[in-house]
């Protein structure tokens, strides 16, 4: 493993050379707070960006142990850090100019679901962040000084703001952890209520378009019929009321089930289900 200053020296030494010279930077570099792994270097500035990883000790980012001592909590924290890394990287994506993908710093862009992701992995003693960087060029000539700025200035700032607990929105992180635990509890409680699905009162079910996850503005909030309404007291201390869809549906309905393990990020505005289902009226 090389020290980060070796990367700086190498980038400055290949400034102005043919783009293929970037292949020399592949490897592992020890920075003060983390290890940078450059796993794959793009062949030219118009190719998909170079693949890299950050390896950082959990004690360095200082996320409370009780936030990541269960699988579902780790899913929530990983999702939160992925979104935060994406948000922070967007602030710098136009700060380095060049041809092709020059200067782009990219990570998985999350939808509204909380899923078990591979962009940020929380391991026993380490957090691994997988992302891509467009190595800067002018035409097909290396911009070594610009690349050095990415690795020495921009990337360390993104890492600090996106991963270190003291810089996170700690209230939002705690809320996201509570949300995934509430949804896990709700899913486990549904069978006890003889139900297969639940729609919270106040949910906005229509989306603004077929390609958007955002709720339709002006849509009427869902309200359960009184005879189907059930209530749950959640681990977070909240109480949620809505419609429980029972197992025993009228014989005039056919239900098609597909398994899902997605967690939604907004308990009160989405269709919370164990099984998302399509209901077809035969009459």
Structural write-up:
This protein is an alpha+beta fold. It has two domains: 2-168, no CATH class; 188-281, no CATH class. Helices cover 26% and strands 26% of the residues. It has five helices and 17 strands. Strands 1, 2, 3, 4, 5, 7 and 8 form a seven-stranded mixed sheet that branches. It has a four-stranded antiparallel sheet with strand order 12-13-11-16. Strand 2 (27-30) and strand 3 (35-40) form a beta hairpin. Helix 1 packs antiparallel against helix 4, helix 3 crosses helix 4 (144-163) and helix 3 (71-90) packs across helix 5. The protein is elongated, with a radius of gyration of 24 Å. Residues 251-262 and 267-283 have low confidence and may be disordered.
Query: Can you tell me the overall shape?
Result: elongated
Q: What's the main sheet like?
A: 7 strands, mixed
Helix content: 25-40%
Q: What would the average pLDDT be, to the nearest integer?
A: 88
Low-confidence stretches: 251-262, 267-283
Total strands: 17
The count of helical stretches stands at: 5
Along the chain, the helix and strand elements come as EHEEEHHEEEEEEHHEEEEEEE
Helix vs. strand class: alpha+beta
Describe the oligomeric state of these chains in a short phrase. single chain
Radius of gyration: 24 Å
Strand content: 25-35%
Gap from first CA to last CA: 69 Å
Q: How many domains comprise the coordinates? A: 2
């Amino acid at each position: 493993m090389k020290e980060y200053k070796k990367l700086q020296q190498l980038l400055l030494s290949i400034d102005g050379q043919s783009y293929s010279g970037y292949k020399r930077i592949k490897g592992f570099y020890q920075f003060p707070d983390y290890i940078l792994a450059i796993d794959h270097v793009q062949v030219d500035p118009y190719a998909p960006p170079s693949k890299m990883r950050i390896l950082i000790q959990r004690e360095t980012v200082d996320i409370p142990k009780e936030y990541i001592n269960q699988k579902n909590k780790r899913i929530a924290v990983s999702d939160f850090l992925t979104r935060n890394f994406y948000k922070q990287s967007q602030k710098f994506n136009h700060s380095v100019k060049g041809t092709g993908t020059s200067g782009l710093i990219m990570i998985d862009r999350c939808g509204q679901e909380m899923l078990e992701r591979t962009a940020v992995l929380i391991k026993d003693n380490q957090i691994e962040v997988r992302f891509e960087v467009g190595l800067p060029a002018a035409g097909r000539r290396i911009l070594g000084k610009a690349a050095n700025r990415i690795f020495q200035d921009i990337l360390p700032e993104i890492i600090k703001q996106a991963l270190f607990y003291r810089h996170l929105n700690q209230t939002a992180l705690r809320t996201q952890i509570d949300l995934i635990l509430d949804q896990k509890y709700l899913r486990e409680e549904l069978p006890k209520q003889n139900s297969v699905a639940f729609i919270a009162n106040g949910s906005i079910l229509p989306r603004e378009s077929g390609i958007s996850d955002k709720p339709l503005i002006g849509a009427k909030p869902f309200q359960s019929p009184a005879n189907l309404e059930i209530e749950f007291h959640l681990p977070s201390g909240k109480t949620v009321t809505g419609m429980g869809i029972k197992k025993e549906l009228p014989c005039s309905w056919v239900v098609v089930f597909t398994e899902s393990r997605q967690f939604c990020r907004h308990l009160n505005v989405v269709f919370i289900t164990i099984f998302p289902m399509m209901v077809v009226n035969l009459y």
